[in-house]
Amino acid sequence: MPINNAIIQVAAASHGNTIAARTPERLGGLGRLIAHKSILVDAPHRFLVEGSWCRQTRRVELDVPEMERGNAALLSLNRLHFEARRRPGGLVWFDHEGIPADQIVECCYLNGFEILSADAAARADADAAGVAVGNADGGMLLRVFETAPSTLRMGARLLVVGINPSPMSASMGIPFGRKGNRFWPGMLASGACTLDRDPLDLVRVGGIAMTDISKRVTRRADELSREEIREGYLRLERMVRWLRPQAVAILGVTTWRIARADPSVALGLQSQTLGDCEVWVLPNPSGLNAHTSVEDFSNRINECLRSPTSSAF
After folding, report:
1. Under DSSP, is residue 105 helix (H, G, I), strand (E, B) or coil?
2. Which residue of 51, 59, 164, 300 sits 20 to 30 Å from the alpha carbon of 45, by its own alpha carbon?
3. Tens-place pLDDT, residues 247-260
4. What pTM value is reported for the model?
């Protein structure tokens, strides 16, 4: 039986790991709130929605069906990237229902798309490519560019943020796809995933989403300009406020120092949050980085996942 706009009174145990939720009707303690269409939460506390921990710093209404629609749209956008690669001209039509209007451009960019106008010329190009174009008010025409698309999810256990894709990763369509990269071996060693180089399994089964500061492909991360890194940081902050992951892991301390304009940034848990989310900085797992190893990366990922905000996924 749905509970609309019920005020959930959340009581945290003194150690901060155990949460009990009570409403006028029994929610089942830490049970999943699948049946409830919307809830109002008084903050700051953490609570469980759809198997994911959410921590709010202000009173906010969570619409669970909206989260489901958003996640379905994000998954569809990721799949469209690979479909578009096979199409002449790389064109696809995307029905963006489920993604807020102020997030559409950024979600498309993070999945390797530029948005085209729906004018007559663009529609003619789409028609020539065999793309069925719908009503301009109910969707948009996209053109793919080669990159490793993001796997985004609202309420993820952890959002992993790389710097930008390498040519090999972009060609494969898999973040950190190059054989010498320590990311996937480290994730497997940590137990965070069971399938090698499978971002969709990682987000759907492990609850770990993935994106990058920039989607521009370069051979080395240090080829990105400071302006690109800063622009990517601001985009990431906006996305995190919408997606609300339980924690964010930044893979690259040098890049994060530039992004935050703070040369004192060090590895580990950060004192400053991002969009009210906990932030960890980890070493760049690239094979070019001599200051980490598979074992080191695995240990650091486990440290993130043991954090109270992400370990209860």
Report:
1. helix
2. 300
3. 999 999 999 999 99
4. 0.79
